[in-house]
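User: I've been going back and forth on whether these two constructs are worth ordering. Before I decide, could you fold them both?

Assistant: Sure. I'll take them in the order you sent them. The first construct and its structure tokens:
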Amino acid sequence: MDPKTLSYSVTPFFLVLSLFCCVAPFPYPYNQLDYSQLDYSFYDKSCPHLPMIVKYGVWAAFKNDNRMAASLLRLHFHDCFVNGCDASILLDDSNGFKGEKNAFPNRNSARGYEVIDSIKTDVEKACPLTVSCTDILTLAAKEAVVLVRKTPGNLLFYQMFSKLSSFSPLYFPVQSGGPSWPIPLGRRDGVTASEKAANDQLPSPIEPLENITAKFTSKGLDMKDVVVLSGAHTIGFAQCFTFKGRLFNFKESGQPDPTLETSALTNLQSMCPKEDSSNSNLAPLDSTSVYRFDNLYYTSLVNNRGVLGSDQALMGDPNTAALVQSYSMYPYLFASDFAASMMRLGNVGILTGKDGQIRKKCGSVN
């Protein structure tokens, strides 16, 4: 899509807000969670319309780009995995540091910066210097997973804002329908970023499973989180260069990966022919349901149709393979465990209280 057609304007948004007097509380047992200095009602008085501003901004982005769900979810993961959830991934390079945007895992790959910047602009208009970019990114990642749920309440929301904007509830481009989860708020933004840290700390699709697990463990996560959060690939795409070695010259053998199912191999070779010009081509990580957040990603792994080597490797370890099997059979188990893992991810290495700052613009330190 021509980027000139992208528009994240929320001019009619504040008209929509006046139609809503409250947001229903999330039916999770909050008292069982203890995130120091974070609070589910952190912005209730200082920025009461924050959830709706984020929701509208994310949906506006989807209207123009149906890959944005996976992109925002990945942006959040890449932020939290490098020295904690502090919106460091959003910082541009400065005289004091080389940021994470141009680290190898993010360069020409990470997307969605402009969506977060647009939401931040609207949040600043409503609540100046109140809400961190980190909290906005964390909330946006959840909205990216939930996306469009056609409950009566959401249909009413569509009908209301479609009359006030260019949206039509009949033509939303994508429905992921993933789980939701409660998010305690109050994170603050970091004041630095590190290209080297991003290169060192982010998992690679060509790394052995034990290396990836070790990186998760270093963040206070575990092997189960590796399997669960890999399920985000149900709505993701990958550039061909990240897995092309499996298609033509697996481990310098001159042959394809023998574990890759034949029809999957043929399809991937057609999307990623053996020429350098195809390296940036995109292939869906879950071709069965490209834009729907479900458990079919795990079914693909069971059937040896995983695209990334790091994904298919989950079937090579008895502990992770058992989880893959369970999630392939029980979609509600996956949804529940994914929500729990996302809650843990969103609280890795956070800054609270007097640490960090509330950036006025997400791309630069105040």
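The second construct, handled the same way:
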Amino acid sequence: MVISTFKHLYILINGAKLEALLPNSTTVKKVVEDDFMKPMHKFEFVDLGDLFEIVNNHVPPLYPDYATDIIGVVENFEKLSPIPTKYGQRNIVKFRICNGRNSPKVTVWAQQGYKTPEDIGSVSTVSNSVQVVETLTLKELTEKTSTDYIKRNVMCFVTIKRVEAGDSWWYYGCNFCHEEVHLLEGRYKCVNPKCLKSSPYAEKRYKIMVLAHYKTKAVNVVLSDRVVKRLVGKTATMLLEEIEDLAETPPSTLFPQQILDITNKDVTFNILISDDNVLINSTMYNATDAYLSKNSKSSTSETVEEILESTESDFGEIS
């Protein structure tokens, strides 16, 4: 077996640098032990918004292309069509893949194009962009009383006026459903009745509440771990480690300055509307994602404006 630098056309985005080459002289022996710890399949899903950063940091001479997994809605689908190339005629399929904020172009080439399911061809081509995630003002959000909006995601621009006081800014989360866990007999037990799984370890996750304001309206928004990580730029575990390294270690229940610094930032929240928001007019909302405006930009967050600009840039076509 020969170990060498990865030379193939596509590599995984996790930065694999080595590959194992098996020449004809290689002897392969079956391992009889249980291999349940070895994954049969591997997926590395990437947020569509993060693709732009990956491509911008991409070094073409060294690694021509990356391969990764994404999820989105297919839009502007064009049926299989031939085009002339220097290698002769090739078949391609073009479409956009959208998640409500980003809509990069995708081109599927050659044999991949031939394998496109025929029923995809029945998808109607949309001449104009389709708004998958509705954008609402804070006033419009609080006025939604139709049950059609339950469990629906909407985008909402706000200013964070303050971080609300609470018992703690982090918690131990279930590795399966991310709900809170309790330590029982040396294992972390999930409190979610639909999960109830236990694990020997648990991940530290953010959970805070902020007062969000826009013009004459103000509501409370609970920020999930993903949202706070975007705004703060680091995980809860990393922030806890930094706090512990301080000369004067504050209690973990006190809100660190990095979290308090999100006050007065202009943010677009992805809000998941709950039953209570619609049925009893609760003004406590849950944010599942966040995007900073340009005047509130941090080094680790994309702005909504940049996402829209990137969608229309030359880079947007991914082959």
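Notes on the second construct follow. Residues 112-131, 297-319 have pLDDT under 50 and may be disordered. The longest strand covers residues 73-85.
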